[in-house]
Automatic annotation (TrEMBL):
Pfam families tied to this protein: ABC1
Gene, per the UniProt record: ubiB
Protein family: Belongs to the protein kinase superfamily. ADCK protein kinase family.
InterPro entries, A to Z: ABC1_dom (IPR004147), Kinase-like_dom_sf (IPR011009), Prot_kinase_dom (IPR000719), UbiB (IPR010232), UbiB_bact (IPR045308), UbiB_kinase (IPR050154)
PANTHER family in the cross-refs: CHAPERONE-ACTIVITY OF BC1 COMPLEX CABC1 -RELATED, PROTEIN ACTIVITY OF BC1 COMPLEX KINASE 7, CHLOROPLASTIC
Top-rank lineage group of the source organism: Bacteria
The organism of origin for this protein: Microvirga terricola
Name of the featured protein: 2-polyprenylphenol 6-hydroxylase
Protein kinase domain location: 123-440
Amino acid sequence: MIGSLVHFFRNLRAGWVLAREGALALVDPNFLPPAARLSLRFARIIERRGLGDGAARLSVALTRLGPSYVKFGQFLATRPDIVGVAAARDLEQLQDRMPPFPREQAVRVIEAALGRPVDELFLEFSEPIAAASIAQVHKARITTPEGEEIVAVKVVRPGVREGFARDLQAMRAAARLFERVVPDARRLKPMEVVETLARSVAIEMDLRLEAAAMSELAENTKDDADFRVPSPEWTLTARDVLTTTWIDGIRLNDIAAIEKAGLDRVVLARTVLQSFLRHAIRDGFFHADMHPGNLFVDAKGRLVAVDFGIMGRLGMKERRFLAEILLGFIRRDYRRVAEVHFEAGYVPPHHSVEDFAQALRAIGEPIHDRRADEISMAKLLTLLFEITALFDMATRTELVMLQKTMVVVEGVARNLDPKLDMWTTSEPVVREWMERHLGPIGRIEQAGQGIWTLAGFAATLPDLALRAGRVLAQVEDVTAKGVALTDESLDAIGRAKARGNRWGTVALWIIAASLIMLLFGGF
């Protein structure tokens, strides 16, 4: 109870800051039940006047609440199914920029993590050049067998883990309350959203895992001539420190610099889209934060990605799903797209395939009446997820992350080439994967994997039979003799019950006192 009360006041403070800074203006009241609409109207009474647009308001509010909420805002930008398309678009503009912490603190973190003085590790170590909610980056020089090399050193912000742990507990409490108060929201899985954020943040705060993600992506793309990633310096990497090769390149949103360098924007736009699709469909492992700040083009015209804290992963089932629906829309085969949803188990079987195919036609046909450069693949997927809600399709977190990443990728590609034909550009990647995995060679490989799996299961049958026998004997023993409770066990149960009653009474008194203070404070 005490913990619940603490979480309540933390969430109350967060709600106050969001309301005060005008962030609640982003909430569309049309999608709220009457009681929630009334609460929203009252909450906006305390809103400060003369504020900026939605994105500016939200940015100020989340920055005031601290790094955890900035990261949460960025994460919600990947979930338009929860916050709505307009709010997600505003959240995309939220920049994870925090004041840097002093170089001296970064030095202490590095020395504690690597066990040696910074002067022995680096020839030079700069002041911070960029700072975010979880870490900041420094530029440094090291000695390698090939000579001196410039590197980027990422250092975790001191105290960030403790702050995130506190805020995530409050977010979990808010998600549980949301599920109870708004039963229809369970389809959106708010608790799963918070847990996904918690896992994502835990991975981001262990820089060894980011180095591993970088290494895995590099291995997957080693034969891709138009894409590369930096390499981690493993001897200078630990949980709180990540050292990588330095990237010299032009940011993809610097169109003037790209043109001045004589790089082909049309080719580069195609590379952005096809690289993302190859990573998602071919490898099942993709960069899930491909905004222009994380993408560069080097002197050879190669696309270079940085910052691998947020990655997406798709299993074979999800990759097949994505490939088949994209190819189905390209071919206008709505029946097949509908069947794929049912085969994957995403749409409950009590619905009609024909009715679902008809709904998909309402999405697909309008795009075929427009010019290729006007068709948005990302918008199509957004509409698809809206339609699937009518057919009780549960939210698939990995697919929503994929869809949101595709929105960002499409925006980056179209900024380079406004006339980019998304379908013609994506079809070779999708078709190649389909032919490889669903053609004769793929079928043979799947059959071989199935035989190998059955052989492995058969080898475990004797051990499983022995375990089943032991469990059955234990069940029969409990059935015959019952479960014995000693005097000590009964006393312990009684003491635990008494403690629970005492703490419950104390908590009720605290809540009552708090309400009295709030009431008298309002007069």
